[in-house]
Description:
Layout: E1 3-8, E2 16-21, E3 26-31, E4 37-41, E5 55-57, E6 60-62, E7 69-71, E8 87-88, E9 90-93, E10 96-100, H1 102-108
Bound molecules: FE2/S2 (inorganic) cluster (FES).
FE2/S2 (inorganic) cluster is lined by residues 44, 46-49, 63, 65-68.
Amino acid sequence: MNWHPIGEISDIPLRGSRCVKTPHMNIAVFRTGEDEVYAIENRCPHKGGPLSEGIVHGNAVTCPLHNWVISLETGKALGADDGAVRTIPLRNEGGRLYIALESLVMAAE
Ligand code: FES
């Protein structure tokens, strides 16, 4: 895999996120209260809401537009809602974060 550096975990507040723009899609990188990090497409499967602006709780985020809850681990909508966003492989090496670019190229095809 071609790992691309996107900064440090300390750049992201606890239970917060930051948005990483790529030529193929915008990615939301989340840091949970347990210091886990996840990268998913920054586009709610419901109507495209910006998940990076949602509320992080546990390993999930609530979309700011209509409150769908999306798993950060699987990208799937939880509860009664049906849909999913792409998850992006993310590596945490001693606090330095990398995402895998091949998957982004594939996502654009
Ligand atoms: S756009 Fe996310 S819940 Fe509607």
